[in-house]
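Re-run with default settings, no changes from the original entry. Doing this only to confirm the output is reproducible before filing.
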Amino acid sequence: MFVLGIDAGGTKTVCLLADGRGHILAEARGGGANLHVAGELEVEKVLHQVMESAIGDRHIVPAAICLGIAGVDRDDEARTVRDIMRRIGYKSRVVVVNDALIALVAGAGNAPGIVIIAGTGSIVYGRNARHEAARAGGWGHIIGDEGSGYWIGREALAAIMRAVDGRGPATRLTEDVLKYFNIKDTTGLPRIVYDREVPRMSVAALGPLVQRASELGDAAATRILERAAEELVLAARSVTTRLEMRGDPFAFVLAGGVFPVVPWLGYEVTRRLIEVAPRSQVRLLEQEPAAGAVCLALEEARGRLMIPRYK
């Protein structure tokens, strides 16, 4: 028996081929597969490419495929993604879940837990011992995603423009960000946000500059990181409370590309989470979330998969 586990994120897509024991046989990577950013046809192209690459020249048909992708909690997007998978044409059992669930499974296995994802976007997702789920955030970069890489970068740009206008304090972020984008003055910064030719990931990559400025005593940068921590912990508190887990022993899993490159944020979120759930532990996800998709695919192939139901 063979299965595929796929993590389709805003920045990259990872597909793992595994055997019936969960041993990883091959890995394939592709570009981002966010429906709102890339569009339906591009998502289909990326998914098809990584699945074909992972299988390679092996003459096999996966018994099950698990795809973790943002947005599938909403019925319209779930239907779109399932239509894409049908068009790709594998005669396999297919399960499509929120990408936060596969990250939680990768970090906590089948145990209750809560995952805090801060990547290009952000979301907090949890599952309790009664197999109930809850989420907070994950509403996209215009109306949500607080504490994410894009949010931190956008706040850095806003702090620079406030300083230019005299509405806020001077910040060393101005010099650092102008150098990063290779532009001469701040009049070019609005295009970074509004011009479609500049990818959103460019703004989301500013986190390390913000941490460095904070370490050098920049008040604006420090406040941005403090607010990012506040927002992520606020979302984690909401999920913990709704799932009635505040007194339980469980793991908070920190996932996404921001925590490794902005380590202060991970330290601060960890410190604050102890107040949310004193018996909890905090761990950084050290393997690909796609490994969680492999576990769910194996459960689906064996007819034992239970998707947590939202409380």
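The first strand starts at residue 2 and ends at 8. The longest helix spans residues 219-242.
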